[in-house]
Write a structure and sequence with these properties.
Chain lengths: ~300, ~300
């Protein structure tokens, strides 16, 4: 038997691969499908850049970034983004204050303490909770957390009907599954030998958890928190319904604030005409929101990759 | 025993450490129970508040100024048609993208860009998809505030997560199946169509159903493109329109509302009696979401055994 020339062989195979009618059509269609996601990104960036350019023709960068008043609807009109950013920050801060400790403690319990069977029951429940629509959480914040929890505890004169804290509490519930589930994955993939070595030296379970597992899983835990922050910053319904619509610089969580997303929804629901400054401001704020969430998502993926490199 | 004497000699310090460690179990357990019980409690609250409103009339009535007469009918029609549009547009594109990435894409920079891009798109806030839909579909393409514009917007929103889940499912198929087919002379597509896809379908379905359950509760994006809060007709085509494409399309061009938007409208209503309506609508929505999640879990379990 003669050995076929590899060049001929490749030619023959190549011919054969596309000899079936439709094969290249299928490849073309699949490539088109993949192009949709690229086009989506181009459109998102394109729309945000083009429409906020119109906004910045009428409002200077200086005003947008240096003024502290956000007052687009009545005189004196002023577009200082910081009041909206501050609202987002306040709400995010309190959400993390609740969600991070409880989420991490849940992750520790599931990964280090729970019997495998308990874990098998609890983890899917936790992950299903991530599927609760946020408008449902928004309803709870407005109709339950504020009137039945915050106002009786802190006094109705202290707590506004619309307040940042009620939104934060429900945002914390919303991201609890994210933090717990991803951190648990990270802790569970810490190699067994690290734990065994520490036990061998006489460490207790708590010491192994805090001194060995936690530091070893830290990059994964940071990724979980960053992803959670991106979700909180981008969440609209909870803050729009429960946190109110008064843009202001405050650190008092009992007061109402407006977040970036809250403002965007307000414009979307209102009847500002296209081309007016207040309508265009929707896109400038949207750009800001897009960049902030993108930064957190990119950072989170960076940490996830680092974690995979370390242990997988 | 040596073991015991060491423990005795170590005395208080070790005993204390072990006690703290044993107590810590209850601390961590407590945190876990707290999270789960908050949700159980909220679920209980909703059922108590909303159950009195749940009735056949609630499902079949149009919205009304009177809380006890107001119903969910247009919202349920809207959700049904919107999900149908979203499913039929997003799923083929998402699965196609996943197949392209896993089976056909050249391993070069283009594919890396597509993958990173998908991961980032999955993290874009839904309200941004809302202003995308508002600008592109509602205004630029002239679809107005229609079911089609809403469905396309939601489709763009869930494609990234559906792709990522489908990729996962395709990657789970043992390479030997594909390689065997290729070795026997199958073309790439034949190997994918007859060997890879049949084995990946359960995983793809699970991921897809979970994406749909995300879309079914989406509110912000739809409010942005102009879903209405008060509609007194049934959005979407009539069932008889299936025979007539023109009438069918006209139906899809109608304005709409969905269950989450109705929940939003009733929640912020200053008249307190409407909160019971919101709670009842939440029960309806959650039954839908939970049914989808259950379906996904059943499919996953069913095929894991085989």
């Amino acid at each position: 038997m003669t050995v076929a020339d590899p060049g001929d062989m490749n030619e023959a195979l190549k011919k054969r691969q596309f000899s079936r009618p439709g094969e290249s059509v299928i490849l073309f269609v699949l490539t088109l499908c993949a192009a949709v996601s690229l086009v989506t990104t181009v459109l998102i960036v394109g729309v945000l850049v083009r429409e906020s350019a119109t906004f910045f023709e009428q409002v200077s960068f200086k005003e947008f970034f240096l003024e502290t008043e956000w007052q687009p609807l009545f005189e004196p009109i002023s577009f200082g983004i910081w009041e909206l950013v501050a609202g987002t920050l306040l709400v995010t801060f309190w959400a993390l204050v609740f969600a991070v400790p409880i989420g991490l403690a849940t992750a520790v319990y599931l990964s280090e303490y729970a019997h495998p069977n308990t874990r098998k029951v609890l983890k899917p429940i936790l992950e299903a909770l991530a599927g609760v629509p946020t408008v449902v959480y928004a309803y709870f914040a407005l109709t339950f957390i504020t009137p039945d929890l915050l106002r009786p505890v802190f006094g109705a004169d202290q707590v506004n009907v619309f307040n940042a804290l009620s939104a934060s509490i429900m945002l914390a519930v919303m991201i609890l599954p994210t933090i717990a589930s991803i951190s648990e994955d990270a802790m569970a993939s810490v190699p067994r030998d690290l734990r065994e070595a520490a036990y061998g030296l006489g460490a207790t379970r708590l010491e192994v958890t805090i001194r060995v597992v936690f530091p070893a899983a830290l990059t994964g835990i940071i990724a979980a928190i960053l992803l959670a922050i991106a979700r909180v910053v981008g969440e609209t319904m909870i803050v729009a319904i429960a946190a109110g619509s008064t843009p202001q610089l405050t650190v008092n969580p009992f007061e109402g604030v407006q977040t970036m997303t809250g403002f965007m929804l307000q414009v979307g629901l209102g009847d500002a005409a296209r081309g007016t400054v207040d309508y265009q401001s929707l896109f400038a704020v949207g750009m800001m929101l897009f960049l902030i969430t993108l930064a957190f998502n990119v950072a989170a993926h960076f940490f996830v990759r680092r974690f995979r490199e370390e242990y997988e | 025993m040596a073991n015991q004497s060491i423990r005795l000699r170590a005395g208080g310090a070790v005993a204390r450490r072990q006690l703290v460690s044993r107590a810590s179990r209850y601390f961590f357990l407590g945190a876990t129970v707290l999270g789960v019980s908050i949700l159980l409690f909220l679920g209980y609250e909703t059922i108590v508040t909303g159950a009195s409103r749940l009735s056949l009339d609630f499902l079949t009535n149009y919205p009304s100024r009177f809380a006890e007469k107001a119903g969910l009918r247009p919202a349920m029609f809207g959700t049904f048609w919107l999900m149908l549009i979203t499913i039929f547009t997003s799923i083929p594109i998402a699965i196609g993208t996943a197949i392209w990435i896993e089976e056909f894409a050249p391993r070069n920079r283009l594919m890396t860009i597509v993958k990173i891009n998908l991961a980032n798109l999955a993290g874009v806030p839904s309200i941004i998809y809302g202003i995308l839909g508002l600008t592109i579909f509602v205004r630029f393409a002239g679809m107005d505030r229609s079911l089609l514009a809403g469905g396309f917007t939601l489709a763009l929103m869930i494609i990234p997560m559906t792709v990522i889940a489908s990729q996962e499912a395709i990657r789970q198929v043992p390479p030997s199946l594909r390689d065997g087919a290729l070795a026997l002379g199958a073309t790439r597509w034949q190997a994918v169509r007859y060997n890879v896809l049949p084995n990946a379908i359960p995983g793809i379905m699970t991921g897809t159903i979970l994406s749909i359950s995300r879309a079914i509760g989406e509110t912000a994006a739809l409010l942005m493109i102009g879903g209405f809060t008060f509609i007194r007709f049934d959005p979407g085509p009539n069932l008889v329109d299936f025979a007539d494409p023109a009438a069918f399309l006209a139906g899809l061009n109608e304005s709409f509302t969905v269950i989450p938007i109705q929940i939003y409208a009733w929640s912020i209503d200053s008249r307190r009696e409407f909160q019971a309506n919101a709670a009842a609508a939440i029960i309806v929505l959650m039954v839908g979401v939970m049914a989808l999640n259950l379906l996904a879990a059943v499919i996953r379990e069913r095929f894991r055994r085989n």
